[in-house]
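Incident log, structure service

09:12 report received: a user says their structure output differs between two submissions of the same chain.
09:20 pulled the input from the user's history:
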Amino acid sequence: MHLFLGLDGGQSSTTAMIGDSSGRVLGIGRGGPCNHVSGAEARARFTTVIATCVAKAQAALPESNPAFHAACFGFSGGPADKQTIIREMFEIEHLTVTHDALIALSGATSGRPGIITIAGTGSIAFGRNASGTTARAGGWGYIFGDEGGGFDLTRQALRAALRMEEGWGPPTALRESLLAATGASDANDLLHRFYTQEFPRPAIAGFSRRVDEAAIEGDQAAHDILSGAARQLAILAGAVRQQLFRENESVYVAYTGGAFQSDLLRERFRMLIELTAGNHCGPPEMGPAAGALLEAYRLAHLSVSLSNVPEVEK
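09:34 re-ran on a clean worker, output below:
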């Protein structure tokens, strides 16, 4: 029996999934983050987390250390420095190590052509067409890009609070909301706190939910921030579509990430996406670990439909 392995290694968690030749999922294992290997400590954490997750996924198998016919590992930190390490850890006939956007897309569309727009701490749109050609837009980091992601939403909220405090912007509930959430004395104090190690980027991005709360309460500045973010994310997806698909061609555009938990942002994004003829917009069909497993089958030139997929990956 040939075995296939897919692994999603991210900044917050790692998930490994093993399947057989028919596409039936046999086991799944989860653990902590594993996306960095720079330095001895990071490399040790990387290998420990991956080995533990794969071992958990193997628990239901008759062999404790089976060889894999094909495997796909996707990482949020990029693949360049990880393939050699993985080769040393496992016996794998066919291996691909790639980025997280590809496995997220594959899971979102069940391996079919399409586009995924990811808006977590940062943002990116990524797509693949029927010929296998891929394209991206965005994902340039918090200084030069990441429009519509959680960090950008918080940044826009703080800018609105600063403008209000200095008298050159309209009143907004965002100021008091951010001060209450952080304990800062004023917007300027908060600005300086956000520049310290006390507030890493993911923590700053977490305050973006305050924007959604203010918008629900009728705050115009918050509403404008979310509407603008939806527009920017739709532009990213549109840029990918233009590179990969014909005019009026049917394309599924999936969305994922914490920013899309905002009903206002999500529905505005959906409306903008579906203004383009042929576009259909919705949530992912499956998660990125399932996508990585599908990419393992693709690497072996097998076309399968996954079955027995855990609910968390659907």
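09:41 both user submissions now match this output. Likely a transient worker issue. Closing.
09:42 reviewer note: DSSP finds twelve helices and ten strands in the chain. The first strand starts at residue 4 and ends at 9.
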